[in-house]
Amino acid sequence: MRNKAKHLLGTNLFGEAVQAKDAGGLAQKFIVPPFTILDARQGPWQERKRAWVALGIEGSKGRGEGGNVYGPDPMRGGVSWFQEAKEDGVVAGTSMFDPVLCELVYRWFCPPGGRVLDPFAGESTTLYVAAKLRRDYIGIELNPDYARLSKERY
């Protein structure tokens, strides 16, 4: 049985080509050709996501109860009118950036050896994927808890 975490479709983590059954020009280069309808619920997407998770992405770690690491919405200085907060003022709403979507965007729009800029780094799925795909990475995060978690992980 092949190690799914070691071999992601398109190229493995060392940049070596892994041939898919129907690998044509664009599919071979981009995994899913640009201008394609993306369906994250289907088997190939989910299989690839499981492979990324097996490599060590920890998107839910550090979010605390309610899915949030901070408290009241820091960008608005309190509870916003369109989000319901719990009694303690915590506004839930963070989510893990899908590593497959992240990978596709990098392959489509960032050449190998290019640089990724993430102005909302969060728990740094983007950093992890960029490193595995051999892209430079600049992440900006205002929340010191997320910044600390990223430094500890990567």
What can you tell me about this protein's structure?
- It is a single chain.
- With 154 residues, the chain is α+β, with helices and mostly antiparallel strands.
- It has one domain.
- The chain is built from 5 helices and 4 strands.
- The strands form 2 sheets. The chain has a two-stranded antiparallel ribbon with strand order 1-2. Strands 3-4 form a two-stranded parallel sheet.
- Strand 3, helix 4 (125-132) and strand 4 form a beta-alpha-beta unit.
- Helix 3 packs across helix 4.
- It is globular, with a radius of gyration of 17 Å.
- The two termini are 29 Å apart.
- Mean pLDDT is 71; it is low at 1-8 and 66-71.
Low-confidence stretches: 1-8, 66-71
Number of helices: 5
Number of DSSP-assigned strands: 4
Q: Terminal Cα separation, in Å?
A: 29 Å
User: Rg from C-alpha positions?
Assistant: 17 Å
Q: Percent range for helical residues?
A: 25-40%
Gross morphology is globular
The biggest sheet amounts to: 2 strands, antiparallel
How many separate domains? 1
Please state the average pLDDT score: 71
Give the amount of beta strand, in percent.
5-15%
Q: What structural class is derived from the secondary structure elements?
A: alpha+beta
Sheet with the most strands: spatial strand order: 1-2
Element order, helices and strands?
A: EEHHHEHEH
